[in-house]
């Protein structure tokens, strides 16, 4: 089963660079340029990413994949780097991450099996649950917004579909080498949470989401910020808390309505008014990001 989990189709990041580069002048676009000098320095400092180490780790990972012969994979530097960066260029750790991802996709095939933007269009265009800020934070990290309060209608977007949207957005973000290195930040907004949303957040959903984030996701998750959570949130949190590991606990922060608390981590100059920031109030949603995903269909198909 594992060997069938990863496509053997050969695909590189170049397959999606042309459509993405067209959008670089648009607010809704991804940066497919090579690493900036600052990001390269950060990668060397935090991830051991030097030209010598990169070549050594790529060779070691290829050897492991050949020796174990349990995974089908794309034998390109670009693809293997997606797994080497979050594991600090330790080849065995990168292989283990690839295997955990394949196992996750086997177990949750119903949710994540070959999702493509064209097949999930309504999930993005008719809901405003998941959004990505057009502005990066002060550390040049991507900021993902998840509206799990009143903005989420579980009847039109089930918890499984919500996970699928998050999965697609995360896969698409990996086209950016800058994001591979710097990682991402999540703001989970519980404004207007009611029993309707609470009932949709089952222990199964909580376990699936957190298992993926902590065990199988190749994106570096730097911080998770919980904001505007009402008292009702206390009914939800125990379901999630039981699945939160020590590493994620250190990166999880609760702010309530105190945006000054959030600003200790995310510079107000880079945030919209919705979160006490100095940028204009959010007037866009996942529907505006959908064309970006459309242009990345070949790339997403190669990673899913």
Write up what this structure looks like.
This protein is of the alpha/beta class. The protein is built from 16 helices and 5 strands. It has helices spanning 14-22, 37-47, 51-68, 77-84, 91-107, 109-112, 121-125, 159-173, 177-182, 195-200, 203-216, 233-241, 246-249, 259-262, 286-295, 297-303, and strands at 130-132, 142-147, 184-189, 221-227, 252-256. It has a 5-stranded mixed beta sheet. α3 (51-68) packs across α5 (91-107). It is globular and about 50 Å long. The model is unreliable at 7-25 (pLDDT under 50).
Report, as a whole number of angstroms, the end-to-end distance.
15 Å
* Helix content percent band: 40-55%
Secondary-structure class:
alpha/beta
Rg calc: 19 Å
Task: State mean pLDDT (0 to 100 scale).
Answer: 89
Uncertain segments are 7-25
Mind describing the biggest β-sheet? 5 strands, mixed
Strand content: 5-15%
Provide tags for this entry.
304 residues; alpha/beta; 5-stranded mixed β-sheet; globular
Care to give the gist of this entry?
With 304 residues, this protein is of the alpha/beta class. It is 48% helix and 9% strand.
Strands, helices and their partners?
Blueprint: H1 14-22, H2 37-47, H3 51-68, H4 77-84, H5 91-107, H6 109-112, H7 121-125, E1 130-132, E2 142-147, H8 159-173, H9 177-182, E3 184-189, H10 195-200, H11 203-216, E4 221-227, H12 233-241, H13 246-249, E5 252-256, H14 259-262, H15 286-295, H16 297-303
Parallel strand pairs: 2-3, 3-4, 4-5
Antiparallel strand pairs: 1-2
Helix pairs in contact: 3-4, 3-5
């Amino acid at each position: 089963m594992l060997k069938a989990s990863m496509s053997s189709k050969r695909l590189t990041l170049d397959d999606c660079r042309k459509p993405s580069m067209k959008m670089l002048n648009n607010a809704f676009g991804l940066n497919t340029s090579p690493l900036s000098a600052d990001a390269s320095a950060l990668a060397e400092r935090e991830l051991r990413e030097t030209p010598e180490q990169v070549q050594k780790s790529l060779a070691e990972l290829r050897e492991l994949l050949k020796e174990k012969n349990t995974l089908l994979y794309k034998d390109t530097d670009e693809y293997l780097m997606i797994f080497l960066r979050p594991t600090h260029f330790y080849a065995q750790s990168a292989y283990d991450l690839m295997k955990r991802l394949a196992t996750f996709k086997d177990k949750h095939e119903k949710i994540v099996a070959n999702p493509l933007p064209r097949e999930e269009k309504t999930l993005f265009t008719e809901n405003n649950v998941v959004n990505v800020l057009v502005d990066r934070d002060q550390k040049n990290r991507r900021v993902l917004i998840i509206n799990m309060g009143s903005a989420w209608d579980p009847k039109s977007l089930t918890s499984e579909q919500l996970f699928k949207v998050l999965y697609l957005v995360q896969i698409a973000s990996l086209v950016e080498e800058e994001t591979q290195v710097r990682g991402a930040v999540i703001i989970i907004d519980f404004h207007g949470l009611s029993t309707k949303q609470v009932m949709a957040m089952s222990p199964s959903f909580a376990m699936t989401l957190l298992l993926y984030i902590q065990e199988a996701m190749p994106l570096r998750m730097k911080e998770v910020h919980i904001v505007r959570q009402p008292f009702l949130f206390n009914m939800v949190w125990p379901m999630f808390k039981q699945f939160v590991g020590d590493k994620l606990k250190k990166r999880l922060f609760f702010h309530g309505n105190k945006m000054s608390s959030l600003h200790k981590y995310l510079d107000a100059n880079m945030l919209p008014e919705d979160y006490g920031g100095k940028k204009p109030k959010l007037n866009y949603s996942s529907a505006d990001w959908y064309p970006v995903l459309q242009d990345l269909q070949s790339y997403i198909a190669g990673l899913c």
